[in-house]
Amino acid sequence: PLRVFAVSNQKGGVGKTTTTINLGAALAAVGRRVLLVDLDPQGNASTGLGVERRQRETNSYHLLSGRASLEEAAQATASENLWVVPANSDLAGLDLEISDSPRRAHLLREALRGPEGTPAGEGPADQRFDYVLIDSPPSLNLLTINAMTAADGVVVPLQCEFFALEGLSQLLDTIDRVKKTLNRALAVQGVVLTMYDRRNSLSAQVAADVREYLGGVVYETSIPRNVRLSEAPSHGKPALLYDRACAGSQAYLRLAEEVLRRERDP
Amino acid sequence: PLRVFAVSNQKGGVGKTTTTINLGAALAAVGRRVLLVDLDPQGNASTGLGVERRQRETNSYHLLSGRASLEEAAQATASENLWVVPANSDLAGLDLEISDSPRRAHLLREALRGPEGTPAGEGPADQRFDYVLIDSPPSLNLLTINAMTAADGVVVPLQCEFFALEGLSQLLDTIDRVKKTLNRALAVQGVVLTMYDRRNSLSAQVAADVREYLGGVVYETSIPRNVRLSEAPSHGKPALLYDRACAGSQAYLRLAEEVLRRERDP
Ligand SMILES: Nc1ncnc2c1ncn2[C@@H]1O[C@H](COP(=O)(O)OP(=O)(O)OP(=O)(O)O)[C@@H](O)[C@H]1O
Ligand SMILES: Nc1ncnc2c1ncn2[C@@H]1O[C@H](COP(=O)(O)OP(=O)(O)OP(=O)(O)O)[C@@H](O)[C@H]1O
Ligand SMILES: [Mg+2]
Ligand SMILES: [Mg+2]
Q: Which of B38, B41, B68, B86 is in the most buried spot, having the most CB atoms within 10 Å?
């Protein structure tokens, strides 16, 4: 069955886009059919996958506002088994446009799984993909709520920095609220420590604190700070295509294996 | 006369909070009376200045919604000449609460400078401070619009990473729109390159591209990647108090001097 993950954290610059692209590419590399949905008006995930501005005529704004089907909005990437619904600044106007629509939190869910009443497993995304990853903007706004309402699980990138812990409880509260009011099935799939630098004592300290505070929810795999991860987007490729042997790519391959293990034995 | 700067960039994790705290502390260290306004519901600037959760009963939500005056909302910090209006998650509800108020974009401006019609220089902030710096959230929402409507200038922190350039044109468009519709005096005070790492060729490349593309708007001072800057917030202090001699503190002192030079000879 299809599994949908929202990659969310309202703290900015923690590695949401980098995780969506590279975890997605790693799952595709081990044979899963993966769709990435870019739900950030900045469109960083689309850029990191090499989607030019002029190729974003049909994008996640059109998918959510019902102007395009999933078939029309999803496009292939340079990686086998990896597809993307791109984003651009069209998305920035959606909040206001749909603020009085009663289904405003469910738009992405319905675009992926079909309108309310569609039998489980028979939606547009169910037929074509094994996994959907949704890149969220750095905010707890309607776009992030749409991602969480459409999702089975939330993957939370957490930077190994002091401010990272500050927003965590707000994020977990929001996930709880969405679970109670919009999507009973929602759970935290896992928390991934990003930009981990073992030479830096603050980084090691934050990682230790998070593992103590959250326990088994934190993936064993952490993502090291690795300059190749920040270079890959300028070539429009996931790190796996840009430099498969680098520490960043290897970490995301390990993370994909760990995600799949959790899916088998939840 | 009072000068108000919005520290804004919708790209996450670029150093908005770090710049607000440390540029503010540097201006205070050279004798200016400085107020920092935390306009991010994450409250990172408040934490970085040592404001405990229980000391945020009166905060920027109360200031903007008219429930507290500037006198009541501003509090002293451990640094001389440096005051702060703290923030917490109360602020997250403001968007919805004021969405149909005609003055919703002007709330902060009126709280600092007095209601419409107050003669220039006679508002609550004019009497007490030389500079106000406003830490914006990572989004182009009503809180960031409030910051820009209240401001004379925008200080734009720009991380030396590939994705940094992506959002710049959206940000400059937003500044233009606010200037045309809400605040004719608004201008870009400057763009500051942050987390500059001269050992990393991507960082040097992005810095060179930005200077070529934007010219003199970019400050000569760039802020190096310096772990002491990310450690200071865990001690509730600006870097200037935590470690005045470190490369980060010295860079922010230089930046403050450059900002003051621009103020003298615009
Ligand atoms: N493990 C890593 N090592 C080195 N650089 C990284 C790593 N992960 C991410 N980066 C870089 O750090 C910056 C922030 O990462 P990214 O853009 O993925 O974060 P984000 O959470 O999506 O940001 P936003 O909040 O703006 O959406 C980017 O320039 C990215 O290339
Ligand atoms: N020059 C620097 N050197 C090292 N670390 C830095 C530097 N500037 C900022 N940091 C660290 O990088 C992280 C992001 O910085 P900061 O929180 O100031 O960015 P921001 O733009 O305010 O983020 P947000 O978009 O979430 O508001 C923080 O953990 C901060 O301590
Ligand atoms: Mg992102
Ligand atoms: Mg911040």
A: B38
> Which ranges in B182-226 belong to alpha helices (H)?
201-214
Which position has the token pair 């309310």? A116
Shortest Cα–Cα distance, B7 to chain A (Å): 15
Centroid of ligand 4 to alpha carbon of A165 (angstroms): 13
Ligand 2 atom at minimum distance from B225 CA: 3
> Cα B244 vs. chain centroid, distance in angstroms?
21
Chain B residues whose CB is inside 8 A of the A228 CB are none
Give the mutation target among B136, B196, B227, B230 for probing the ligand 2 site: most ligand atoms within 8 A of CB. B230
Using CA atoms, how far apart are residues B29 and B38, in angstroms rounded to an integer?
20
What is the identity of the amino acid at B247?
Answer: A
Please identify, by atom number, the ligand 2 atom nearest to the C-alpha of residue B137.
27
Amino acid identity of residue A69, one-letter, is S
SS3 A102: coil
Element housing A213 (H / E) = helix A201-214
Q: How far apart are CA A125 and CA A107, in angstroms?
A: 14
* Separation of CA A241 and ligand 4 centre (Å): 32
DSSP reduced 3-state for B153: strand
Chain B residues in contact with A230 by the CB 8 A cut-off are 161-162, 202
**Beta carbons within 10 angstroms of residue A244's beta carbon:** 13
pLDDT tens, position by position, for chain A (266 residues)?
Answer: 999 999 999 999 999 999 999 999 999 999 999 999 999 999 999 999 999 999 999 999 999 999 999 999 999 999 999 999 999 999 998 988 888 899 999 999 999 999 999 999 999 999 999 999 999 999 999 999 999 999 999 999 999 999 988 889 999 999 999 999 999 999 999 999 999 998 999 999 999 999 999 999 999 999 999 999 999 999 999 999 999 999 999 999 999 999 999 999 87
Angle at B186 between CA B181 and CA B189, to 5 degrees: 150
What six digits make up the tokens of B51?
Answer: 């404001």
